[in-house]
Write a structure and sequence with these properties.
69 residues; mainly alpha; 3 helices; transmembrane helix; transmembrane; DUF2892 domain-containing protein; membrane; YgaP-like_TM
Length: 69
């Protein structure tokens, strides 16, 4: 079974979802063009996905520890 220990607190997960939705709204509103649109799509998807999973590989690479219950 694939299991990742969470390393994102609840407040950061909520912030990531809000930022992902804001970026998606900017994309749908036509505020981005060209390659920036594709980068924004990837960024928004990554933020929302890591928020729902609760694990961020980039944060783990820089030393963020797992959350203790």
């Amino acid at each position: 079974m694939f299991f990742l220990k969470r390393n994102l607190p609840t407040w950061e997960r909520a912030l990531r979802i809000a930022m992902g939705v804001a970026i998606a709204a900017a994309i749908l509103g036509g505020l981005t063009t060209g390659i920036v649109t594709y980068l924004a799509i990837v960024t928004a998807a990554t933020m929302v996905l890591t928020a729902f999973v609760g694990f961020c590989p980039a944060c783990a690479m820089v030393g963020r520890r797992y959350l203790e219950k």
